[in-house]
Amino acid sequence: MATTDKASPRDRLLDAAAELFYRDGVSIGVEALCRSAGVSKRSMYQLFDSKDEVLAASLERRRPWYEAQLRSPDSETATPRERIGYVFRRVEENAAAPGYCGCPYLAVLVELKDGEHPASVVARAAKELLQGYFEEQAEQGGAAEPALLARQLMLIFDGASARAGAHIEHLGDGLVTRTVTTLLDAAGLK
Predict the structure, then answer these.
(1) 118 alpha-carbon distance from chain centroid
(2) Which residues, as ranges, make up the DNA-binding region of this protein (predicted)?
(3) Left, alpha or beta for 188 (phi > 0: left; psi -120 to 50: alpha)?
(4) How far apart are CA 92 and CA 147, in angstroms?
């Protein structure tokens, strides 16, 4: 008996949603989403109550991958400063990839402008997790004001992601990591 490796309709919808919403924005229509996923609208509505729910589920599903991209592979032995630096080197690397459109979570928050939207809730949680990570590293590294440093790092992260995603800024020259290094020095991070 042969088995197929074909993804389930739910997985195809979530995969298509992640790609389309990232590339084209959250205003993509249900028909385009279903066509891309190879799933009927009827099937989509049997699996999800709305397109909003599909967007939120696709963002939630992507979160472990997103978080893993920002965690240093040497996190056990790296210093807090090295862990923070790794995040920003990844931003620079990712920004150079074809099709880079910035941070998907920031994009959703900016596009939706509705803090209660299910996708905004997921996106905000992802951003808060990253800020919490920065604050934890800042505390471990002896920064004078860890919460302030975390907020400043988020401004750099989001600003660099947005500018590179909008193709306004090329991050390949190390501007982001140099800026972060200056900030970490000023904060007294070891």
Answers:
(1) 16
(2) 29-48
(3) left
(4) 24
Contact 86, 78 (CB under 8 A): yes
Q: How far apart are CA 155 and CA 164, in angstroms?
A: 14
- Which pair of structure tokens corresponds to residue 108? 């959703």
Cα–Cα distance measured from residue 82 to residue 160, given in angstroms and rounded to the nearest whole number: 19
The highest-level CATH class for domain 56-187 is mainly alpha
Q: Which residues contact 143 (CB under 8 A, 6 or more apart)?
A: 149, 184, 187, 188, 189
pLDDT digits (tens, 9 = 90+) for 60-99: 999 998 888 888 888 889 999 999 999 999 999 999 999 9
Question: What is the per-residue pLDDT across 142-183, written as a single tens digit (0 to 9) for each?
Answer: 999 999 999 999 999 999 999 999 999 999 899 999 999 999
Instruction: Give the angle subtended at the CA of 120 by the CAs of 169 and 161, to the nearest 5°.
Output: 10
Q: Which two tokens stand for residue 86?
A: 């790794």
